[in-house]
Amino acid sequence: xxxxxxxxxxxxxxxxxxxxxxxxxxxxxxxxxxxxxxxxxxxxxxxxxxxxxxxxxxxxxxxxxxxxxxxxxxxxxxxxxxxxx
Length: 85
What we know:
Strand content: under 5%
Number of helices: 4
Radius of gyration: 16 Å
Shape: flat
Helix content: 55-70%
Structural class: mainly alpha
Oligomer: single chain
């Protein structure tokens, strides 16, 4: 396993997502997408089980305190504004 110090790892699509893409059945499920929720939950579970939550929290803290912090806060604010509409 290679280490990407300071860089977030690329998320891997769930098998169900891969199957949809390979079969050309990329159907839009709309808001409340069960496959997207499942994919997200699988990623969260894998991260927690990896034991790297404190490491990931430190990475996020450094990113917020670093050069990209302003961009991250602006993106968060924009996302929150879209989510309350």
